Amino acid sequence: MTTLTLPAGRREKTGFRQALAYEWIKFRSVRSTVWTTAATAVLPVLGAAFVAATGSLQPDDTVLGGSLTLSVVAQMLAAVVGALVVSGEYSSGTIRTTFAAVPHRSTVFAAKAALVAGVMYVLALLSCSTAYLVGNAMLPEGRYAQGDPLPALFGIAASFAVAAVLGLAVGTLVRHSAGAVTTVIGLLLLPSLFGPLFGNAERWIAGLSPTAALEKLTQTSDAAADAVGSLGPWPSLLLVAACTAAVSLAALLLLRRRDA
């Protein structure tokens, strides 16, 4: 009898694909993640319609910024989804089954990260683009500056993906749903709140949150330097992505060392 042995690289590739397929099945089977994901998609569009209908924009706001008023809340929900994807398994005990099916924990973490990042990127790009189109159609022509939707909308979608991966990393570290959700929301909000207390370092501290990068990318009038830091939108997004990568690495190292 002949035994077919795949190269190590091929085995790892197949394992990741299988893990990603498992994660997708779990993702769409859990009500909490499905409903939170749906809310993430709907909120920006509803916010755009509400702001346009009520005319509740600042005089110096842009159509893009006004239309994406609720994108900050939606981004927080994206982070919550990331946290629930892993903390929900710890709470229910199904994480043991996951590790039994895919013993390589780094593969499990990579599959979860790829899933939440991909889903949130595509979802945010579609949702926020629709919100901008809705706001642009409903708001009086010429009253507000348009803003620059491209390439900003791609950066906005990326900030949602980063927030979701940050939520996943926090969920992996904390392992309890309520604690993970509270922690990740705090990480999104606290840099902007405490940044002004750090003097010259304010531009870095306040810009550490995905929320800060998002507000800059939407070109909202609320994105003042004393609230979200003085870094530009793209440098701020890169800084946030680097910090998220560092937190994710810490989460992965801890995941591989401790018991399920």
Describe the structure.
This protein has 12 helices and no strands. The protein has 260 residues and is an all-alpha fold.
* Low-pLDDT residue intervals, each spanning 5 or more residues: 1-14
Q: Supply the helix-strand structural class.
A: mainly alpha
Q: Biggest sheet, open or closed, and with what strands and sense?
A: none
Radius of gyration: 20 Å
Strand content: under 5%
Note the gap between the termini. Answer: 38 Å
Mean of the pLDDT scores? 88
Give the count of helical stretches.
Answer: 12
Oligomer: single chain
The count of strands amounts to 0
Helix content: over 70%
Shape: globular
What is shown here, in short?
The chain has 260 residues and is an all-alpha fold.
What secondary-structure arrangement, pairings included, does this model have?
Layout lengths: L7 H22 L1 H24 L8 H5 L3 H22 L2 H7 L3 H34 L10 H26 L2 H18 L7 H4 L4 H8 L7 H4 L4 H25 L3
Helix pairs in contact: 1-6, 2-4, 2-6, 4-6, 4-7, 4-8, 4-10, 6-7, 7-8, 7-10, 7-12, 10-12
Structure keywords:
77% helix; 260 residues; single chain; mainly alpha; disordered N terminus
